[in-house]
Specification:
Helix content: 25-40%
Order of helices and strands: EHHEHHHEEHEEHH
Radius of gyration: 20 Å
Number of helices: 8
Strand content: 5-15%
Structural class: mainly alpha
Strand order of the largest sheet: 1-2
Shape: globular
């Protein structure tokens, strides 16, 4: 009921796609010039700074409603799918926020950030944004627990190339690849003994399942045996061979398997 207004995260996903399209459609013909202009207008009118809540706030917030104002009060802190919000807000030519919000909001290492991460994950590993633990022989620089649902490594990068993207904590292409590799290793080990899990059937991530929407992740408490194909298939940039193995298995053995007559 309260989520009936502006959604800054979904707006960011829309804008990263539009800006990627704008870079492509920048020819000299009238149709392309018109499209470029319209996308630029949308980009320039997003009020990122409004979602800071106040000039003193050290973070951005997800929602605003003309009826319920900031009732939801959902602070944006990582590690999850919303880093793109901070990068676009900082880069805005018209409604920019201070670059310092990247570290005070997204990568907050204070109690506010730790409380937020513990709240949704139920674990302490990674509560300070940095992780440093090793899972299945793979050290994870940034991320909560074993990395969370695999879509964390996908949504931000729908229109943004992570290669070479780094801050004081990690290189994000490498970190995303490690999250995918941890997910693969978890499914290969298959601690829940679910039918089908393995090196060619992996990629635990959030989706609708038998119990409705669940943020499935490679942790027994949040893995109910639901395998969502987008997990491994969207990880092609990080794990091309393993993602291809998943694609081949799904297509050849599950989709196109000959039916018994």
């Amino acid at each position: 009921m309260f989520d009936n207004g502006g959604d800054l995260v979904e707006t960011a996903f829309l804008m990263e796609g539009l800006l990627a399209a704008r870079q492509y459609f920048k020819g000299s013909n009238p149709a392309e010039r018109d499209l470029y202009s319209r996308i630029s207008h949308l980009w320039e009118t997003v009020e990122w700074d409004w979602y800071r809540r106040s000039p003193e706030s050290d973070a951005l917030y997800w929602h605003w409603s003309p009826e319920w104002a900031r009732h939801i009060d959902h602070r944006l802190s990582g590690f999850n799918e919303v880093m793109i919000v901070y990068l676009l807000a900082i880069a805005s030519p018209t409604h920019a926020v201070s670059p310092g919000l990247y570290y005070s909001g997204w990568a907050n290492q204070g109690e506010a950030g730790a409380r937020y991460r513990r709240g949704w994950s139920g674990v302490n590993e990674g509560e300070q944004y940095t992780n440093g633990h090793t899972y299945y022989g793979i050290k994870l620089d940034v991320g909560v627990g074993t990395g969370g649902p695999l879509f964390f490594t996908h949504y931000f990068y729908m229109g943004f190339d992570p290669r070479g993207l780094h801050d004081r904590f990690t290189d994000y292409f490498r970190n995303n690849r490690d999250i995918a590799r941890i997910n693969l290793a978890y499914c290969t080990q298959n601690p829940g003994h679910y039918t089908g899990y393995g090196a060619d059937f992996w990629g635990v991530t959030a989706s609708d399942g038998a119990k409705g929407y669940v943020p499935h992740e490679p942790r027994r408490e949040l893995d109910d045996g639901t395998m969502t194909f987008t997990g491994a298939l969207s990880s092609f940039p990080y794990t091309p061979e393993s993602s291809l193995a998943m694609l081949r298995h799904v297509y050849r053995d599950l989709v196109c398997r000959p039916r018994n007559k």
